[in-house]
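Retro notes, item 3 of 5
We never archived the inputs for the acetamide complex last cycle. Fixing that now. Sequence and ligand:
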Amino acid sequence: MRKICFIIIMAFMMQSTQAQRKVVIIPEPVQMNLKNGSFSLSNATHIIASKGTEHEAAMLNIYLKELYGFTLPVKKAGKGHGILLALLKKSDKPESYHLDVTKNQVSIKAVTTQGIFEGIQTFLQLIPPKKIEGTTFHISMPQLSIYDYPAFKYRGMHLDVCRHFFDVAFVKKYIDYIAMQKFNTFHWHLTDDQGWRIEIKKYPKLTEVGGWRNGTIIGHYPGTGNDGIHYGGFYTQEQIKEVVKYAADRHITIIPEIEMPGHASAAIAAYPELSSFPNMNTQIAKGTKWAGDSTGKQVQQAWGVFPDIFVPSDNTFTFLENVLDEVMALFPSKFIHIGGDEAPKDYWKKCASCQVLIKENGLKNEEGLQSYFIHRIEKYLNSKGRNIIGWDEILEGGLAPNATVMSWRGEEGGIAAANQHHNVIMTPGQYVYLDHSQTKHEDSVTIGGYTPLITVYNYKPVPKELDTALAKYILGAQGNLWTEYMAYPSKVEYMVLPRMSALSEVLWTPENKKNWNRFKEELPELYERYQLWGANYFKNSLNEAANQASK
Ligand code: ACM
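Structure as it came back at the time:
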């Protein structure tokens, strides 16, 4: 009898621990009240899509299928057991949502469809991270009540597809990682010295010539040789449209980046007249090995900063305006990123037409000429109803009037821009450059640096030096992923996960709810989610975190 009692008690305890499975939602919501009791999600549960939420209901089914292997029937209205999606009339924070789980119903309510979508992302994390076997199932989830909204309105992740090219299938996967962690912006770095990746119908050589290089350096810069492999790729305009739609379906805005005036070697290889010195051979980076023809203008095969930048001529401006016209037709984003970083002025110093332009426009020097360049492009984009974002070098020589600054060389550029009442997106290298090593014991090649998980987690996008009245100019922050040392999707995943999840809390979770110890304890559950996504990830963050804590 005692034995039977023991078995019954054990069975009860096991059941109740199952019911009390810890709720792990990342990013951590603003308010979450756990209640007694559970909701049973089964194959008979309907999604009840009230007016205006039909698309979100379809998205919920897409994620359920992708992650868990099942879909649920959708009905338009009705009470009773189900997952209710409903738009609220009352004005609220635009991305906020209410998620309530009661005995009979899950309800996700928001003022906007984007809010409903964010609520769906939270709901998906209430389902244990395991594929469902078979067609009949019951999944128990705790009753609770969540009210949630983001701390920052710009929550970005970036991907460089120039140093290494990533196909549409992976870009879509990356967009899902972004969406599932409640980011809302994907910054797509499409042009650089090592490859031009977007089809421009008016200038086919940009991708025919500029989309390919004859080799890539081997190992860490300057490398131990050159692989001599013809490497490249690009997205057709049809593919771009497909990706833009895929992102929009997930409430992700894509900001395309077309680099100027620097990082232009691939464009110049295609159209040498865009250079100050069209007849000069492309400069090969010191100490690096080159593969194939090295005469004339070439797509770069090594990493770094190169002197051959766009010449500020009428021909170049016409070219860039035509390129941007096609870009704007593809990307509905209000913002277009025009680069502006790392543009050495050596060629402009030697170029007669550049010096004439400086004189004619009463500019101080070549930095003034860069400012003139950016102003001119900004004016063009503004005339089409778009705004520019540029890296913090666009501050040099004077900011264009409506520009948003992406602060990457630390926080100083962002502070300076906010002090001038310009909007700012924070991407300081020491906190959110996810190409940096995340462990001191890295055994793959990375660009270097050391930005462990805790450093990302503890980042605060509003610098303490900034006057509180100016904090409103800090729109948010972004994780950047430069892919010199990431040739495959699995390496990209390894570099961004879990640091991207840490950044999701930086951008979404209010300061008073952020908690490194809680986040750290949630990592094993997060890893299970990554496995469910089919994603690779850095598996040793806990040890790295322990090493950090012991210092
Ligand atoms: C940059 O990392 N060059 C913006």
